[in-house]
Specification:
single chain, alpha+beta, Neuraminidase, Rossmann fold, 3 domains, 38 strands
């Protein structure tokens, strides 16, 4: 084996390969004897195509370019397509947010009116009806939202009144579910200032009388994802005891727990299409259980059994029909994909999409679960050591590390190395993924640790996790960087200005001024900071104290700032203010604005360029060569 310094190891995991290796599955559905799924296509500007796998194994594209199934409801979208049982595709077109119908091989036809104010998302086909969440923007900051039924004959394209409103009356609505006989509608509702993991209500409406009742929820309760088991019985997830577990609830009875566990069947409802469980016609339930890692289990009258699916992170139960179930997620080698399992023959798991890479598993680092005691309690993380089958480092050298901070901040990372993780570890740079306090996947108490403490708990937790690595002799304490996007970018900026643990920082569309974020951000997160920091104007002093841009003199270590020009969640003005502060205080930095990108980079060329710049930045700061990647000159 060759002996080379950490960071400069040769690797087949190129930025170009990373951009191609991680197609994002965006929903899936069983349609007849075919499997349909949405998939991001970085080489086509990050558009979401809808593909299908026929019974004979042939894969083709149903939604061809330039069509793009992307919703912007809540800005994060989700549920941008569905399909009827007889094979008609319904999708939200990104460019105009109208809903269209499309038979494979035919022309798309609009199903909703042309409008500058309306957006659609959360599409679902149930019992012969096409349902959606409609968001109608007006002069006020808070849009009007409703659950609507869209006629599929095209009449709604010309007559807006043909699109029937089924439910309204709250700031947010999600996850509509129509009873089998079509007489009732269930959905999840919540209002400002709550987020959907704080407090929601499960509502049921009698569609003939208009009567609405709250079936579950309230303060410190966040029921999710109603699924009808019968015309008068619902299955849903709820967390009265601090963990999301399943509940059966007859409308005229009391809720009954279903196989409770010390794990979460549920998570942050960031996008409208997310599903953690489904039920088959014969009463079996397939569910995700998360306690750090994801497990997928079958819950049946005969008992509970784990299913032999490779998924350990990001698992979603996309669709169940008869005994067949579609599950998406990532395996322990970081390969994201979609799998089909037959509950009557579970040993035969069929990979449908994804699940491969341009390099072998020997290049993928195994996840090492770490728990470190911090000032606010235990901190959970996954460590990925430098991994290269052909190279070792000098015996007297310890590796540099990048501490990754997920966004949200109410989000979660599982024990699955991404292609980006391998991009670094294969070159001799370790990666530490931290689920700081506030993350999902460990119960409500862990999630609530961040209440009122954003900029404190998250910073303390990433710092103590990184310090534990160096104290154990696993990382070079002088070469630890921190990187994150969005809320993770906030933690990056706060950590480099309030601790001495990190020698460099990489912020992707990060938050530097919390007050500006509260004023500028979109409606879905408009009151998010009430819980994370405090309500304005009463907590203004706290906002000022915690915002990194309030203390520009504290910027000391080199920073790489990456930003999309069309970001409506964290506008470019935040990144530009950070850049100006770095210039004013003579801090080495680089600032890159990607035209046409929003909140999260989707285009292949952006993914490639940003990855190369991140590696070149680390090389410039930590003093190692980066073969095959252009050097980065810091301003």
């Amino acid at each position: 084996m060759d002996t080379l310094p950490y960071g400069s190891w040769p690797s087949p995991v190129t930025a170009e390969a990373v951009s191609r290796a991680t197609p994002r599955v965006d929903g899936a559905r069983l349609v007849g004897d075919e499997v349909w799924w949405g998939e991001s296509v970085p080489a086509e500007g990050g558009r979401v195509a809808v593909k299908r796998r026929r019974a004979d194994g042939v894969v083709d594209t149903i939604l061809p370019a330039p069509a793009n199934a992307r919703s912007s409801v809540h800005e994060y979208g989700g549920g941008a397509w569905t399909a009827s049982d007889d094979g008609e595709l319904f999708y939200v077109e990104k460019t105009d947010q109208r809903v269209y119908g499309l038979r494979p091989g035919a022309e798309a036809r609009p199903l909703t009116p042309a409008s500058d104010t309306d957006r659609h998302g959360g599409l679902t086909w149930q019992h012969g009806a096409l349902l959606a969440v409609r968001e109608r923007h007006g002069d006020g900051r808070v849009p009007d939202r409703a659950i609507v039924r869209i006629p599929t004959d095209g009449s709604g394209a010309e007559d807006a009144d043909a699109v029937a409103t089924l439910a309204a009356g709250s700031t947010f609505l999600a996850q509509p579910a129509l009873s089998p006989d079509g007489s009732r509608l269930a959905w999840i509702a919540w209002d400002h200032p709550d987020m959907p993991w704080d407090a929601t209500r499960l509502r049921v409406a009698d569609l003939s009388t208009g009567e609405v009742r709250d079936l579950a929820g309230g303060e410190r309760r966040a029921p999710l994802q109603p699924v009808w088991l019968a015309d008068d019985e619902l299955l849903y997830a709820d967390d009265p005891d601090g963990r999301w577990n399943l509940v059966r609830h007859r409308l005229d009875g009391a809720p009954q727990p279903v196989a409770p566990a010390d794990a979460d069947t549920g998570g942050g409802l960031w996008v409208l299409g997310t599903r953690w469980f489904d039920a088959t016609a014969d009463g079996r339930i397939v569910a995700v259980r998360t306690n750090g890692a994801d497990d997928v289990v079958e819950i049946a009258p005969s008992g509970i059994r784990p299913l032999p699916l490779p998924v350990v992170a990001g698992a979603a139960v996309e669709h169940a029909r008869d005994a067949r179930v579609l599950v998406s997620g990532a395996d322990a080698h970081g390969r994201s994909g979609l799998w089909l399992i037959d509950l009557d023959a579970p040993e035969s798991v069929l990979p449908v999409a994804g699940g491969d890479a341009a390099w072998g598993d020997e290049w993928m680092p195994p996840a090492r679960a770490l728990v470190t005691e911090g000032p606010h309690g235990p901190v959970h993380a996954f460590a990925y050591a430098p991994t290269n089958p052909g190279v070792v480092a000098p015996a007297d050298e310890r590796p540099p590390y990048v501490v990754l901070v997920h966004g949200g901040p109410t989000s979660h990372v599982g024990p699955a190395p991404s292609a980006k993780t391998a991009f670094f570890t294969s070159r001799g740079i370790g990666v530490l993924d931290v689920n700081y306090g506030g993350s999902t996947g460990y119960g409500r108490a862990y999630r609530d640790r961040l209440k009122g403490q954003w900029g404190v708990v998250d910073v303390d937790d990433v710092a103590v996790a990184a310090s534990a690595l160096s104290e154990a002799g696993l990382a070079d304490p002088g070469r630890i960087a921190i990187a994150g996007g969005s809320a993770g970018g906030w933690t990056v900026l706060a950590a480099v200005t309030t601790t001495d643990v990190f020698a460099a920082g990489i912020s992707r569309y990060g938050v530097g001024d919390a007050r500006a974020l509260a004023e500028d951000t979109h409606d879905f997160e408009a009151r998010y900071l009430d819980g994370l920091i405090g309500p304005l104007p009463a907590a203004e002093d706290v906002y000022l104290e915690r915002s990194p841009l309030s203390h520009p003199e504290r910027f000391r270590v080199p920073l790489l700032i990456l930003q999309g020009s069309e970001d409506r969640v964290v506008p470019p003005s935040q990144a530009e203010a950070i850049r100006d502060a770095l210039v004013a205080h003579g801090v080495p930095h680089a600032y890159v604005l990607y035209e046409g990108e929003g909140h999260g980079f989707r285009r292949a060329e952006t993914v490639v360029d940003s990855l190369q710049r991140e590696l070149a930045f680390l090389g410039a700061v930590f003093g190692f060569a980066t073969p095959g990647v252009p050097a980065l000159v810091l301003d």
